# Entry
Amino acid sequence: MKTGWLAAGLLALISTAAIAAGNYLTYPQVGEPSFCASNNPNSPAVGGTTGQGGVANCVQTVPAGPTALTGSELVPADTGAASNAPVQTVTVPMPLIASGAYFDNTGVTNSGNNLGSYLTSATIPNNVNTWILDTTTTVAALSLTFPSSPLNGQILRVSSQKTITAFTPIANILQTITGTLPTALTPSATAAVGYTWLYNGTTSAWERLQ
# Structure
């Protein structure tokens, strides 16, 4: 009896894992036509659940998806928080998917006299796509170290609201920055402000895009 219950429990666990791994296999796809998600070679040639005829032995048809994204879609995501955290799963609005997370740095750090002083060096946190230096005055010099654990294909944008007269991008440990390195960052009313890199996990290199 115990053996039977154990086998049943193991089977249920395996089945749950298999279902979870394919949660989206039967969802309509944006910009794609209807398709057959499941067929049974031993059944008669019938149409699917939504009337897809002409596909032999189709028993489950997925309808065509919308022609394009509207921007109002919500994408489910795991926060990566601990198992006892109050929030582990969230939905992410589509406009944020391309934007990623950003870090807005005012450029002020506490000094010994508590008056504050503009930073001369900083490190971009992990999982950040856009790092902004949000200062009110020109910065004489800034050395900016890239994230220590970037993801393959991660986009990194660096921008500043005011001129950085001497700007030095620095690759983190075991990384490189390819191409010509910028030496200054100057806001412009007619051109893009800042720089953009993409991380190539194969070569551990930040490749400049802009």
DSSP finds two helices and 15 strands in the chain.
